[in-house]
């Protein structure tokens, strides 16, 4: 019953999906083959008609209470300001190694946090600073991890791609593309086996959907009706390779249908849509109906990692997405519907600025791990807790 409904809903929203495809990258912007157009989330048709470019949407009647909009604003601003600072610090070589920023994708996390409950488990790939920030991990512990300091949430031994925080049920931070997908299914299996009533939300990038492990995990999760929400954050590119260059199947959510998994596309530049889709999937998971596959159509404003100048896309494409920025949309809704004043929002911004600054000072002033840490949290450790006879 529920399955049929979701598929029908997907088809309906699918029909509006390609309303604002930007121009493809010009051949001078690419050093390889001309890139086809990326898949875009649906645009606000009225704004598009007026300006030629879709704008942030402001609902006539906000669907959610003021507290929810303010929570979204604060969480998303924290993610963005933290990431902007991390980008600056990388430029100054305070942060080294890999560093993948989440700027532009904030609604993918904020809308899910509001739709889920505290006991639910989270897992994602290496673009992983924002998820724990929104779940409540201290910015200090994440920044210190980026600095490879002993006070970091992974004791300075993981770095940007391996943020973990058991306290908030954030189970990483994984560098192997698609590697976390079977892990997400396994976590959901444990929740079901232990009858906790909790679920696992498992994020991945669009590059991960071509990995064999995903298909094996989807099949098993569906067969065993595991309480898992698989989310692909389709930001149009895996490093510099657009989705269209990877496969004939560019509507990624349809891949779930091969396993009879309820699957739907979501305009993830819109935090309300993210919340609603995740809430529906969670209800199904908790009712014992098993997994859902959500395709979050989103965009990253920065390159793949700090070493990517993003020459494979046009300025126009980037500007198009920026013009419907999810934080701006929430800000606009808050102000238009008098949920808070400009001054109230400025006070939130100021608080976040202070938190981010404090995290930098904390990281700067923390020590590096000592050499004996090399022998801890690995199999050689005498009392390593995960091996049992
Ligand atoms: C199995 C595997 N192959 C290749 C890589 C190298 N690699 C790192 S990130 C990446 C692109 C993944 O893109 P996507 O899944 O779309 O996530 P995004 O970076 O867009 O969030 C690749 C190919 C890897 N880490 N793991
Ligand atoms: Mg991607």
UniProtKB/TrEMBL annotation:
UniProt feature, compositional bias: Low complexity: 7-28, 42-61
Region (Disordered): 1-63
Entry-linked InterPro entries: DH_E1, PDH_E1_Alpha_Subunit, THDP-binding
Cofactor: thiamine diphosphate
One record GO biological process: pyruvate decarboxylation to acetyl-CoA
Keyword Oxidoreductase: yes
Origin: domain of life: Bacteria
Pfam families the record matches: E1_dh
GO molecular function, one term: pyruvate dehydrogenase (acetyl-transferring) activity
Keyword annotations from UniProtKB, A to Z: Oxidoreductase, Pyruvate, Thiamine pyrophosphate
Occurrences of domain Dehydrogenase E1 component (ranges): 75-371
Quaternary structure and interacting proteins, as annotated: Heterodimer of an alpha and a beta chain.
Protein name as annotated: Pyruvate dehydrogenase E1 component subunit alpha
Gene behind this protein: pdhA
